[in-house]
Specification:
This protein is mostly helical. The chain has four helices and no strands. The protein has helices at 2-58, 62-131, 136-157, 161-202. The N and C termini lie far apart (91 Å).
């Protein structure tokens, strides 16, 4: 009995450790991604300001100066909108991933806990039978059947890994669709703003 219960406890510890390691890796990866994105955005902002300054230097007439100001305002707003949409898509994705993982782990914990309880009850039942002078063969067969039933219940109630992976794939697709839409909208706005600016300098 002690060996079996020890194995169950060890299995639960390993599950908890793997879960903590998995969440730790996710947090570290997200922190790295956020840091990299922040740095890249700062670089892009600096280059964009330089481009605005260059345009201002080329503007000689009032029309050209007004066009540059309008272009700068339009692009600044478009970039802010794109970034907001991308950030929201990422936030939604991460919240979804956390929910999927938490649900998966919760189901696994419940299944494992039920299995642990079933194993304990099976051994308690066997000990009570022994104390009631039930034959050792009958006790052994009953215990074997109870433990088998507990294992089968565990297998049938554990979370489906395939479903979890499918849920994560859906979240990735939704994030990509949101980001793609934000980028497409930004490109359209940027292209229109460039045409308007170019037209002003050609007058």
């Amino acid at each position: 009995r002690e060996k079996t219960e020890s194995q169950v406890d060890e299995r639960m510890k390993k599950i908890d450790i793997r879960q903590d390691e998995r969440l730790g890796k996710i947090d570290a990866r997200q922190a790295k991604q956020d840091g990299t994105l922040k740095e890249k955005r700062a670089e892009w902002d600096e280059k964009r300001e330089d481009s605005y300054d260059a345009l201002s230097e080329k503007a000689n007439t009032d029309t050209e100066k007004a066009a540059v100001a309008t272009y700068e305002k339009t692009m600044t707003e478009a970039i802010a909108t794109r970034r907001g949409s991308v950030d929201q898509a990422v936030t939604t994705f991460r919240s979804g991933v956390e929910k999927v993982i938490t649900t998966h782990q919760g189901t696994l914990d419940n299944a494992t806990e039920t299995f642990d309880v079933s194993v304990t009850k099976a051994f308690d039942k066997a000990e009570a039978s022994c104390a009631s002078a039930v034959s050792s063969n009958e006790v052994r067969e009953t215990l074997r059947a109870d433990l088998k039933a507990a294992r089968e219940t565990l297998r049938s109630t554990r979370p489906d890994v395939t479903e979890t992976k499918a849920a994560l794939t859906t979240l990735k697709s939704e994030r990509k669709a949101s980001v793609d839409q934000a980028v497409t909208s930004f490109k359209a706005t940027a292209e229109a703003a460039r045409k308007t600016l170019k037209s002003a300098f050609e007058q």
